[in-house]
Amino acid sequence: MNTQLVAVVIAEGFKLVGQLYRNRPVTLRQPSPLKVVETRATGGAGEKPVELEVGSPAPIKGKATEIATGCVPCAIGHLGACSGLLNELMRFARTDGIESNEVVDRVGMCLDELNAMERVDLRPEMLVQLPDWEKKLAQEALRASRATRHALEAYTSVDTLEQVAADTQSVRTQIFRTWIKQKMEHLSPEEQQNIQKKVIEKLDELVPGEV
Questions:
Q1: Cα(first)–Cα(last) distance of the chain, in Å?
Q2: CA distance linking residue 153 with residue 171, whole number of Å
Q3: CA distances for 160 relative to 4, 48, 116, angstroms
Q4: pTM (2 decimals)?
Q5: 82: burial class by Cβ within 10 Å (0-12, 13-18, 19+)?
Q6: Residue 113 and residue 128: Cα distance in Å, rounded?
Q7: CA gap 7, 17 in Å, rounded
Q8: CB atoms within 10 A of CB 130
């Protein structure tokens, strides 16, 4: 199998894994019924309070993209976008200085990415239903985002920006690698077979008779 086909195998495998995870059903549970104690004042002695139940513990089912598994891939995307902006702004920081509009604007865009990640993709309701392995990665992404954001809000030199750029790139790479590996490890045998079958079908479309 040549290099091009190997690349197709990898690309199609990751694409199918992502689709499988996005389409997984997820069960969300509402809080326990809320009890409201109401006392009706009728003037009678020994009046007992009346308990009313509000709400229902019935599970809510939906696709994983709605809550559970979309947040870590999106967080990786935000970190990647921020890393790209930081790498790009370093060119301007070295030649035009840290007060250059090109630098300042890209710092601002990076902060926008991090704020969106923390306040939308990794907000508590997005994390609560994640499996433990994925929740740890989400929390690691949150810590990295806050550290990067605080550093960018107080940068004072080219060296500071360079260190932030390096750290952000490293943490994005590490989180992405871990997420891909652990996601593959947590696939069921049936899911793995389904992915292999679809990859082989795709390769057979590209090069009939070679697979």
A1: 9
A2: 19
A3: 41, 67, 23
A4: 0.61
A5: buried
A6: 22
A7: 15
A8: 20
Each domain of the chain, given as residue ranges in start order, spans: 66-185
Q: How far apart are CA 115 and CA 145, in angstroms?
A: 8
Segments of the chain assigned E as strands: 25-29, 34-38, 50-54, 59-63
- How many Å apart are CA 117 and CA 142, to the nearest integer? 8
In angstroms, the CA 86 to CA 22 distance is 30
**CB 54, CB 48: distance < 8 Å:** no
pLDDT digits (tens, 9 = 90+) for 18-76: 554 444 544 444 444 445 444 444 455 555 554 444 444 444 344 333 434 458 899 99
Alpha carbon distance 51, 131 (integer Å): 36
141 within 8 A of 175, measured Cβ to Cβ: yes
Which residues lie below 8 Å from residue 142, measured CB to CB, with a gap of 6+? 118, 122
For 20, 48, 166, the CA distances from 84, given in Å and listed in that order, are: 28, 66, 11
